[in-house]
Amino acid sequence: MTDAEIPTSSPETGRRVRREGARRGAGDGKAKLQQLPRRAITRHFPPMQIVSADEIESIHRASLQVLAEIGMDFALPEACDLLKKAGARIDGERVRFDPAMVEELIRTAPPEFTFHARNPENNARIGGNTMLFGTVGSPPNCSDMDGGRRTGTHADYRKFLKLAQYFNCIGFISGYPVEPVDLHASIRHLEALRDAVILTDKPFHAYSLGAERIRDGIEIARIARGISAAQMEREPSLFTIVNTNSPLKLDTPMLRGIIEMSSLNQIVCVTPFTLAGAMAPVTVAGALVEQNAEALAGMVFTQVVRKGAPFIYGGFTSNVDMKSGAPAFGTPEYMKACIVGGQLARRYKVPYRTSNTCAANTVDAQAAYESVFSLWGLTMGGGNLIMHGAGWLEGGLVASFEKFVLDCDLIQMVMEFLTPLDTSQDALGIEAIREVGPGGHFFGAAHTLARYTDAFYAPIVSDWRNNQQWLAAGKPEAWQKANAVYKQALVEYQEPAMDAAIREELDGFVERRKREGGAPTDF
Amino acid sequence: MTDAEIPTSSPETGRRVRREGARRGAGDGKAKLQQLPRRAITRHFPPMQIVSADEIESIHRASLQVLAEIGMDFALPEACDLLKKAGARIDGERVRFDPAMVEELIRTAPPEFTFHARNPENNARIGGNTMLFGTVGSPPNCSDMDGGRRTGTHADYRKFLKLAQYFNCIGFISGYPVEPVDLHASIRHLEALRDAVILTDKPFHAYSLGAERIRDGIEIARIARGISAAQMEREPSLFTIVNTNSPLKLDTPMLRGIIEMSSLNQIVCVTPFTLAGAMAPVTVAGALVEQNAEALAGMVFTQVVRKGAPFIYGGFTSNVDMKSGAPAFGTPEYMKACIVGGQLARRYKVPYRTSNTCAANTVDAQAAYESVFSLWGLTMGGGNLIMHGAGWLEGGLVASFEKFVLDCDLIQMVMEFLTPLDTSQDALGIEAIREVGPGGHFFGAAHTLARYTDAFYAPIVSDWRNNQQWLAAGKPEAWQKANAVYKQALVEYQEPAMDAAIREELDGFVERRKREGGAPTDF
To answer: Contact, B441 vs A325, CB < 8 A?
Structure first.
C-alpha cells in the first residue's frame, strides 16, 4: 500500500476517504471547497396552510367524485383485474372507484419509513417533518457555460453522479440527472444504475419503464447493499416515480413498475403531471382536484398490490404560459399548488414529494428567483422528498452543471434557515453588549472571537466582495463562480469504498443482463 | 386644449391620465407594459414563528436588562430632559430605563394607522396583516447596464420617482431612491421632496437630519395634500426612518427628527442597524437583543414626545462576512432575524418594518436569490412596511434601474402568492375534467376558454420562450429584459395631476426656503 492509498478520515463526514484525493484537492494551491456536513434536515415549525380544512375536504370530495363518475384509465389488464377484486368497477381500461373503497384502501400506506442506502449513514427518514433533497432527474440535455447545451451522454451522467456524491446536501439520486443518451435504451438502466451504486452511496431511483428495468434496479440495489432479498423486502432501498398520463391515465410500463415495486415493498411515488390549462383545468384548484384524483388512484393501486407498501404523494401542479402553452415553473400558482399539495398529503398521512423548478433558459436572475420561490413553497408547504433539488433548468429539459452548484448553495441556505435559533443566555450576549457598550464595535469582543469562524453560513456561490474588489476580479457573475466550483468539486470527488465481493457480484449481474439483451424497448 | 391634452381614464387605476402619454406608449409599435392593478396587499395566513413565546420573552427581558444596566446614549440634552421627566435615569448622555417604565410607556403606540398620500387612492393602512412595499432608499450610487455604476444625480433621482409612480406595486417612496448628490445638501431636501410630491402621488419619507428638514418635509406633505396643519396632525402623511448608531446610540439630528415628527403625530420608524458581528453581538439572538433594546428605547422616546404618536418597529439585523467584515444580506441569518423581529413587533403591538435586501454586485442569480430569501423572510414574518422593496443592490450602495424592475416582478409574484386560492365549485372544475376525460387536453375546454386570458400571473421579466426561440432572440438574460422594461416604463409614465393653486403654493414655499439657505449642513 503506497502512502497515497492510506485511508484517512474526512473531517466533515467522519467517513474514510483516500488521502490521495484530499491532497489532489489542495495540491494546486486551491483551498478545498467548504460545504455543510451531511445531516438530516428537519422542519421545526408546522407546515403552512393556505386553504382551510373545509377547502381541503372540498378538493378531496371533488377528487372522489372524479374517480367515481369519470374514472381513470389503467392500461394493463392485470392491474384492472387486481382493482376489480378490490371492488372497483371496470369498463375496458376505465376504472371507477367507490369513494368508500378509496377511503378504506388508502389507510394502509405508512406515514413514514426509512429509505435505505448502501452506506447506512445515507439512510433517510421519509415523511413527517423531514426533508430530503435529490438531484435533478431525467433531462435529455445538459449544459455548462464552456460546452453549451447538448444532448446528455454517459460521461455527463457520471459527472452529475460525482457531484451528487460530493455535495452533502444532496440526499438521493432522482433518476438519471441527465439521460445518458449514448447508452442503448435496452441496457441503459444496467449501466446507469451500476454507475449510481459505484460512484455514489446514496439512495437512488429506477424508472418504471416496464417490469424488467424495475426488477434489475431492485437487484442492483440489493447487491450494492450486500443484503438478502428478504432483508431488501423489509427495508425499502429503491424508489420509482410514476408519472400519470394526465388527465386520468396510467400507462402499461408505469403500472408494471408499480406492481414490481409495491409487491416487493419498495417505494412508489405517484406524481400526476397536472399543468393547469394544458393537462388539467385552467384553475389551480381544478388542477389540484385532478392531481389528487390521480394520486389517490395510484395510492389505492399500490395498496391493492401490497397493503402497507411505502407510498409518496407526488405533487407537480404548475401552470402554463397561456400565450404559448409553455410550462411555467416557480410561479405564484406553483407555490400555492405546492402548499395545498402538502395539505392533501398530510390529509392522507403519507409523505409528500415536491420539486425545485424553474423555466429559465440560463442560470440568470430568473433561474434563481423561480427556484427560490419553489423552495419557499415546498419548504413552507411541508415537502419531504424534493425531486430536482439541484441542477434543473429550462423546465426540466436541461441539467445544468452551474445550476447544480447554485442549487446546492440554495439548499444549504434552506438547511441553515431551518436550524433553530440559539436563544441560550450565552447567545443572547448581554455581557458582550456590556463589554462593547454604546458606540463601540464587536469585531474584537471576546464573544465574537470565540465564535467568528463558524458563526454564519458561508455560501458557495455568493460574492460579497466590495465593488472595487469585484471589478478588479473581472466582474464575475454567480454562474461563473458556480462553473469553477463544479469543476473543483469533480477534482475533489472521492469514490466511495465498495467491498470487492460486492463489486464482483454487481459486475457479474450487469454483464449477464447485458448479454441477455437488457430490457425491451418497444413500449 | 389640444387633443393630446384631453384627460381620459386609465383602465388599470381608474385615475385620470393624459391621453398623450398613453399614445406615446403605444406609438412606437410596442405593446403597453402589463402590470397588476394598484391594490392593497393583505396576508391571509398567520405570520410564522420560529421561536417560542418563551424565547420572545427571553429576548424581551434581555433587552430590558440592557436598557436598565447598560443604557443608551441620547446625544441631545432636550431628549434627556424629556426622558428624565418620564422617569429615566440620566448620566451625561447615558440614559437608563427602568423595565416597568419601558413596559408602561410603549403601551400607547397605536397598533395600526393610515399613512396618507396626496392621492387618497394611495392611502395605506399600516400594521396588522397589511403589506406595503416601497422603493429602495438612500444609495449614493445608481446603475444601469448602459451607463454603469455612477454617483446618483438629480436626473437619476427623478427617473426613479417616475418608476415608483409607474409601478402599481410600489406603495411609497422610501427616502431618496438614489441620493441626488448634485443638489447641495442644504437645499437637497427641498428640491427632492418637491419632486417627490410632483412626480408621484404616493406617501413619502423625510430624512431626520435635524429639525429643519423634517419641518420642511411636513410642510411640503401638507401643501401637497392641500390640507390644514390641524388635519395634517390628525392624519399622518409623512414618515421618517431613524437609524440608531448601533450599538446603543441615538445621535442629535435623529433625535431632533423624532421630536419634530412625533410631536406633530407623523410616523417614526426606529430601525437599529445591527449587523451581527460588527455593531451587534456575533449571534443572531444577541443582535436581536440589541436591536430590540434600541427599538424599545426609540419607541419609548416617541411616546414621551407624544402619547399615541404612530411608531413602526424597524428590524434590519443581518450578519457580516466574518472573513472581510462586509455586510451580508438575504442570508439564512437575515431570514431568521426578519421573522423573530416580526414576533417582537407583534409582542409590542406595533407595525413592523423590514427590507428587501441583497449584497450582489450585479443583477445576477445572486441578486435574485438574496432578494427572494429576503421576501420569504419578511412575508412569512409579517413585515408591514417594506423598505427597499425595489431597486436595492450591492448592500444598499447602489440603486439599480434593472433591479427595480426585477423587484417589481418579485413583489407582484408575492402579491399573487398572497391572493387566496379560489376553491369554489366552479374553480374545482369537475365538469371541465368530465368534458375532457382521460387522455384529452384542456386547451380548448369551455372552462379554459372562459378564463385563459387572466388565469395566471403574467410576469414582467421572466422569459418562458423555448430554447430555439430564446436562442433566436439572442439569448437574453433577465437583466436585459429588465433594462428594456425600465426604459419603456419611463416612456409610459404619466405625471399625476396637481391642482394649480397647490403647485403654486408648493413652489412658493420651496423657493422661499431655498432663498433662506435651506437647512444647516454642519451635523
So the answer is: no
For the stretch B54-64, pLDDT in tens is 999 999 999 99
Cell of A366: 430568473
B75 phi/psi in degrees, rounded to 5: -85, 50
Distances (CA, A) of A505 to A92, A491, A496, A512, B442: 44, 29, 17, 10, 50
Is residue A416 pLDDT above 50, yes or no?
yes
Handedness of CA A401, A402, A405, A406 (dihedral sign): negative
- Supply the pLDDT for residue A30: 73
Q: Which of A283, A366, A370 sits opposite B429 (nearest CB)?
A: A283
Chain A hits for B248, Cβ within 8 Å = 433, 437-439
Question: For position B22, what pLDDT does the model report?
Answer: 37
Inter-chain CB proximity A276 and B462 less than 8 Å? no
The half-sphere exposure of A396 on its side-chain side, counting CA atoms within 13 A, is: 20
Nearest to A429 among B283, B366, B466 (CB): B283
Contacts of B72 in chain A (CB under 8 A): 438
Nearest to B286 among A372, A376, A429 (CB): A429
Alpha-helix residue ranges (DSSP H) falling in B226-283: 229-234, 252-263
Q: Which residue of A has its CA nearest to B324?
A: A465
- Strands B130-135, B41-42: pairing kind: antiparallel
Region of B18 (left: φ > 0; alpha: ψ -120 to 50; beta: rest) is beta
What single-letter DSSP state applies at residue B500?
A: H
**Best mutation site among B52, B275, B336, B361 for testing chain A: the one with the most A CBs within 10 Å?**
B361
Q: Cα–Cα distance between A294 and A273 in angstroms, integer?
A: 10
- Which of B393, B470, B477, B483 should be substituted to probe chain A, the one whose Cβ sees the most A Cβ atoms within 10 Å? B477
Which helix (DSSP H) or strand (DSSP E) does residue A389 occupy? strand A385-390
Provide the whole-model pTM: 0.95
What DSSP string runs through A350-377? --EEEE-----SSSSHHHHHHHHHHHHH
Of A58, A286, A331, nearest to B457 by CB-CB distance is A331
Residue B278 has its nearest CB partner, among A331, A332, A441, at: A441
B contacts of A424 (beta carbons < 8 Å):
285
Please tell me the distance in Å from B318's CA to the nearest CA on chain A: 10
pLDDT at residue A229 greater than cutoff 80:
yes
The pLDDT of residue B323 is 86
Q: Do A48 and B45 touch (CB under 8 A)?
A: yes
The C-alpha atoms of residue B106 and residue A510 are separated, in whole angstroms, by: 73
Chain B closest CA to A292's CA: distance in Å?
A: 11
- In angstroms, the CA B429 to CA A292 distance is 13
Mind giving me the DSSP string for A282-308? SSHHHHHHHHHHHHHHHHHHHHHHSTT
CA angle B506, B191, B243 (to 5 degrees): 110
Give the model confidence (pLDDT) of B167-201 as tens digits.
Answer: 999 999 999 999 999 999 999 999 999 999 999 99
* Burial readout B53-81 (b: 16 or more C-beta within 10 A, e: otherwise): eebbebbbebbbbbbbebbbbbbbeebbe
pLDDT tens digit string along A321-332? 988 889 999 999
Determine the Cα–Cα distance for residues B462 and A330; give it in Å rounded to an integer.
11
* Optimal mutation site among B70, B275, B356, B433, interface A, most CBs of chain A within 10 A: B433
Phi, psi dihedral angles at A163 (to 5 degrees): -65, -40
φ and ψ at residue A254, rounded to 5 degrees? -65, -40
The two beta strands, B72-74 and B94-96, are: antiparallel
Smallest CA–CA distance from B477 into chain A, residue:
A364
